[in-house]
Amino acid sequence: MVQYGLIGYPLGHSFSKKYFTEKFEIEKIQAEYLNFEIENLDVLPDLLEKHPDLRGFNVTIPHKQHILPFLAKQSEEALAIGAVNCVKIERHASNYQLIGYNTDTYGFRKALLNFIPPGIKYSLVLGNGGAAKAIRYTLHQLGITSLTVTRTPRSGQEIGYTEVAPYLADHLLLVNTTPLGTWPNIADFPPIPYEYLTPRHYLFDLVYNPENTAFMKRGAAAGAHVCNGWGMLIGQAEAGWKIWTTDLAE
């Protein structure tokens, strides 16, 4: 049976297996979706050898950048972003090559445009990992200037969490790309000054489990609009499925 999967560590929070398993059942697709909870990607070649029917896999925290050295090719977007969350496996007899894509940008763009009104010009991106790279890339494509908020700012395009307050006057979109608040650590949240938020602000959390995160709850309490990452997940999953099953993305 053809296989697809998810690689990351840990994977207790992930809904991808449930999503694709239900998709396969509803659409009567003869395939299965497996979780590969891998802390170190050094075992990836062995995994691919043991699963010859694996045709593609998603990549999540913390491997969206770790996967890059294993790839034979990358899409233009993945190269520009510097992170990959979707891999297509092309097999030829006993050989294979891995092709990397970034579908986070497609999923985020689709979900974001359904959430924010036109006219937002400035945003704060919380976190600086692989997901943040895709978010900043997408915001740039949409004409929204982004400023990264991180615990250890290293450039003029980054600030620390203690420096956020003055920027909230005109940075009306805040995107949480960190895993803070993800199940089971649902009480965690990014340490921003929530008391400065207003009904003019829009908080987008890439976390989707739980459905209503501590970040979202605190924003909503201040009157801000909030959205979780479920719509983004669906969008990037749809894009990944298209990549795995057609040649249109080549």
List the keywords:
250 residues, alpha/beta, Rossmann fold, 2 domains, six-stranded mixed sheet, 7 helices, 12 strands, 24% strand, amino-acid biosynthesis, NADP binding, shikimate 3-dehydrogenase (NADP+) activity, Shikimate_DH_fam
Strand order of the largest sheet: 2-1-3-5-6-4
The CATH homologous superfamily of the largest domain corresponds to: NAD(P)-binding Rossmann-like Domain
Number of domains: 2
The number of helices is: 7
- Which class of the largest domain in CATH terms? Alpha Beta
Mean pLDDT over the residues: 94
User: Count of DSSP E strands?
Assistant: 12
Measure the end-to-end span: 24 Å
Strand content: 15-25%
- Provide the CATH topology of the largest domain: Rossmann fold
- Helix/strand order: EHEHEEHEEHEHEEEEHEH
Instruction: Give the structural class.
Output: alpha/beta
Overall 3D shape: elongated
Pathway: Metabolic intermediate biosynthesis; chorismate biosynthesis; chorismate from D-erythrose 4-phosphate and phosphoenolpyruvate: step 4/7
Organism: Odoribacter laneus YIT 12061
Pfam families: Shikimate_dh_N
Domain Shikimate dehydrogenase substrate binding N-terminal: 6-87
Describe the protein.
The chain has 250 residues and is α/β, with parallel strands linked by helices. The chain has two domains: 2-101, Rossmann fold (3-Layer(aba) Sandwich); 105-232, 3-Layer(aba) Sandwich (Rossmann fold), CATH 3.40.50. It is built from seven helices and twelve strands. It has helices spanning 16-26, 44-50, 76-81, 104-113, 130-141, 214-221, 230-245, and strands at residues 2-8, 31-37, 54-59, 73-74, 86-92, 95-101, 122-126, 145-149, 158-159, 173-176, 202-205, 225-227. It has a six-stranded mixed β-sheet with strand order 2-1-3-5-6-4. Helix 4 (104-113) crosses helix 5 and helix 4 crosses helix 7. The radius of gyration is 18 Å and the shape is elongated. 39% of the residues are buried. The model has no long low-confidence stretch (mean pLDDT 94). One of its GO terms (biological process) is chorismate biosynthetic process. It comes from Odoribacter laneus YIT 12061. Keywords: Amino-acid biosynthesis, Aromatic amino acid biosynthesis, Oxidoreductase. GO terms for molecular function: NADP binding; shikimate 3-dehydrogenase (NADP+) activity. This is Shikimate 5-dehydrogenase.
